[in-house]
Amino acid sequence: MSRLGKLPIELPQGTQVKLESGFIIVKGPKGELKTKLHESVKAAITDKAVTLSIGDQTKVKDKALWGLFRSLINNMVTGVNQPYSKKLEINGVGFKAAVSGSKLTLNVGFSHPVVYELPAGIKADVQANIITVSGIDKYLVGETAARIRRIRKPEPYKGKGIKYSDEILRRKAGKTAGKTETK
Fold this sequence. Notes:
Number of helices: 2
Number of domains: 2
CATH topology of the largest domain: Outer Surface Protein A, domain 3
Oligomer: single chain
CATH superfamily of the largest domain: Ribosomal protein L6
Order of helices and strands: EEEEEEHEEEEEEHE
Structural class: alpha+beta
CATH class of the largest domain: Alpha Beta
CATH architecture of the largest domain: Alpha-Beta Complex
């Protein structure tokens, strides 16, 4: 039995969940999210909570899906009430970022500025050298932050590049000048 899957998902005030033709739809004050349920996972929706169950509790795959969909739906409920955000930090001389509409322009040491088109539902905010990526879909926020980081990964010698604000870089020592031995 899935320890995580059997826990009910509590619905905050103002959050609505409905089941429509195999899709579960979560509406809240910040927006609406929708995902397709696997056919072996069944949802029971009440006014205060959502409970998931599976048909055969002896199948390992079904138990894994049970916990997975419980986590996915819980992330949806959390996201429509309080958006997720990731912070990225830009380090390097002359490295900067700017947002205009749904485009993030990065000057990160290339001969040209890199323009990144933000996906629908994702907002970016730039304060000094910190980029904040936010949205209601946890997966999309994390994926967007990872794609922005991938534009210029931090290098281990000087730490130049784009990194997560809570990421700890392992720094390497640079080359040392060759020693000359005296007799």
